[in-house]
Design a protein that fits this description.
Layout (H helix, E strand, L loop, with lengths): L3 E3 L9 E3 L2 E7 L4 E7 L3 E6 L2 E5 L3 H16 L4 E6 L4 H6 L7 E6 L2 H10 L1 H4 L8 E5 L2 H7 L4 E7 L13 H9 L1 E10 L7 H12 L4 E7 L9 E7 L2 H4 L3 H11 L8 H6 L5 H8 L1
Parallel strand pairs: 7-8, 7-10, 8-9, 10-11
Antiparallel strand pairs: 1-2, 3-4, 4-5, 5-6, 11-13, 12-13
Helix pairs in contact: 7-11
The structure holds S-adenosylmethionine.
Length: 283
């Protein structure tokens, strides 16, 4: 009898995955954690009933939330990742030779430990990398008291519920802004606008009240279903946001990084928004 994992992100629509086998399951201090195997997507991490990352398509999300801001910045040395417990974001960020340190603030130690143990292909290498400074803490508390400055801050959080809710507030974004170097860039995991329009609209309002240059860019991640996934962008430097395709290509070539999704053409094209998302952004 086929067993299915039914995602419970939305009450009226849902995606489901055949469960080949449950690899690990526990109620951690913060959330319900499941790692299971699917014949198509490989190993899948779900938290509180929501698909977080899969071996099959994690590269799309992790490449777009790292290479776009880091290549746009051009001289990023210090990176802060809030969340990111599977290690994929840190893995991609540390591929940049100019990046000297990645501070990753993950609230749930179990996510790190179980992803290293049961989905090593995503981020196990990252946790061995000397550039990584892993902090187990609430990201909101961390930035509230942080005295360090970062060139790029990446919010690789769960959705705005449970422990992730605080990572979508204006107060949190304001604290992040204070932790940015001059011209630094904040990027956020900002959901699927077709099914989560308020998430984009709210973030747009909050970022616009804090940054001179606010934008969203898009990526197509199959297991974040419902069309494009949106990534929020906040910076006081307009220069970074508008690097021409030739410059993106030059920087990407110089990085020597091999990607499976990111391209310089996409770097520029991903900021082009469909009308309905432009309207959500305009508020
Ligand atoms: N790719 C996923 C997405 O787009 O929803 C995110 C994956 S990553 C596993 C999300 C991480 O955020 C989880 O490991 C979770 O424990 C962490 N997280 C949630 N709330 C947090 C908080 N307040 N501070 C730090 N980490 C948090």
């Amino acid at each position: 009898m086929t067993e299915w994992y039914n995602e419970t992100l939305y009450p009226e629509v849902a995606q489901r995955f055949v469960i080949k086998n449950i690899v690990f399951r526990e109620r951690t201090e913060h959330q319900d954690l499941v790692i299971f195997e699917n014949p198509v997507m490989g190993r899948i991490l779900a938290l509180d009933g929501i698909i977080q990352t899969t071996e099959g398509d994690e590269f799309i999300y992790h490449e777009m939330l790292t290479h776009v801001p880091i290549l746009a910045h051009g001289k990023a040395k210090e990176i802060l990742i809030i969340g990111g417990g599977d290690g994929g974001m840190a893995r991609e960020a540390m591929k940049h030779r100019g990046v000297e340190r990645v501070t990753m603030v993950e609230i749930d130690r179990s996510v790190v430990d179980m992803c290293v143990k049961y989905i090593p292909s995503i981020g196990a290498e990252a946790f061995k990398n000397k550039k990584l400074n892993l902090v187990i803490d609430d990201g909101a508390a961390f930035v509230k008291h942080c005295k360090d400055k970062f060139d790029v801050i990446i919010i690789d959080s769960t959705d705005p519920q449970g422990p992730g809710a605080v990572l979508f507030t204006r107060e949190f974004y304001a604290d992040c802004k204070r932790c940015l170097t001059k011209g630094g860039i904040l990027v956020t995991q900002n959901g699927v606008p077709f099914f989560q329009p308020d998430e984009l609209g709210n973030t747009a309002k909050r970022l616009k009240s804090l940054f001179k240059n606010t934008a969203f860019y898009l990526g197509a991640v199959p297991t974040y279903y419902g069309g494009f996934m949106a990534f929020g962008w906040g910076s006081d430097s307009a220069v970074h946001r508008d690097i021409p395709i030739k410059e993106a290509a030059t920087r990407f070539k110089a990085s020597g990084i091999a990607t499976r999704y990111y391209t310089p053409e996409l770097h520029v094209g991903c900021f082009a928004l469909p009308r309905f998302i432009q309207k959500l952004m305009a508020g």
